[in-house]
Recover the amino acids of this structure.
């Protein structure tokens, strides 16, 4: 069975002191309640990545960056390159999050470039993709996912399936309080895995973790994580409160015992 990866994407939230308080609590939790089959990651804001890495270095909790520049180092004011992030020994970096696509105009081509930057610098990208509400209502979900997969992974060779993590986030469920039903989420995840099987191979596709993101909370995570092709969650708002995040970790530990 693939381990579950429970990742908290903090987006543009938490100052230094709030970051410290949360991570100290998470560190204490992780020391007491570690479970090898439930991986934990948090993605703080850029200014606090070093703080997070230092504080969590002796724990099983991994630190992720929320985004990366599509450019190499150079005259790109305000951007953060993959080489900079790699120098912090970060294991993960998000690419293609729907908010980057929506608010910053990132295309599938840009996402593909970012994925390549992350891979080139020895990190694991968390490749985000998903359909908008109007696309789902028009029954275009699979077509959208197929396009995002084909363009996002263009010229990217996956040999083991451990090089990348995929995160399916239906845009209509992010920050809206709406959540895909377990069956809707499973159907999308199964489509993604089948695409990976057909375009890489079965062994690679079976190793790739596919996360679900979109209004995941303590009261719905169990049924989502029980689905055969859902391998974890990329969590936004509910990951900002320590008691909610640890509650979801506790539920995930229960799930791996029966999944």
């Amino acid at each position: 069975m693939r381990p579950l990866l429970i990742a908290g994407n903090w987006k543009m939230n938490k100052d230094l002191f709030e970051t410290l308080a949360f991570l100290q609590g998470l560190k204490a939790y992780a020391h007491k309640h570690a479970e090898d089959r439930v991986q934990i990651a948090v993605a703080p804001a850029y200014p606090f990545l070093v703080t997070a890495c230092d504080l969590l270095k002796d724990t099983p909790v991994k630190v992720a960056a929320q985004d990366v520049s599509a450019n190499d180092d150079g005259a790109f004011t305000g951007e953060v390159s993959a080489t900079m992030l790699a120098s912090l020994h970060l294991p993960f970096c998000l690419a293609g999050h729907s908010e980057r696509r929506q608010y910053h105009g990132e295309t599938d081509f840009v996402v593909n470039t970012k994925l390549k930057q992350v891979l080139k610098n020895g990190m694991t990208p968390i490749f985000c993709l998903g359909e908008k509400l109007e696309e789902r209502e028009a029954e275009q979900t699979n077509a959208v996912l197929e396009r995002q997969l084909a363009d996002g992974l263009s010229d990217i060779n996956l040999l083991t399936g451990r090089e990348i993590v995929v995160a399916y986030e239906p845009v209509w469920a992010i920050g809206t309080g709406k959540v895909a039903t377990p069956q809707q989420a499973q159907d999308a995840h199964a489509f993604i895995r089948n695409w990976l099987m057909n375009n890489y191979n079965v062994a690679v596709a079976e190793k790739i973790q596919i996360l679900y993101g979109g209004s995941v909370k303590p009261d719905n995570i169990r049924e989502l994580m029980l689905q055969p092709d859902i391998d974890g969650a990329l969590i936004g708002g509910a990951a900002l409160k320590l008691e909610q995040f640890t509650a979801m970790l506790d539920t995930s530990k229960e799930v791996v015992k029966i999944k």
Q: What stands out?
A: The chain has one domain: 4-258. The beta strands are 4-9, 38-43, 61-65, 92-95, 124-129, 165-168, 209-212, 232-235. The longest strand covers residues 4-9.
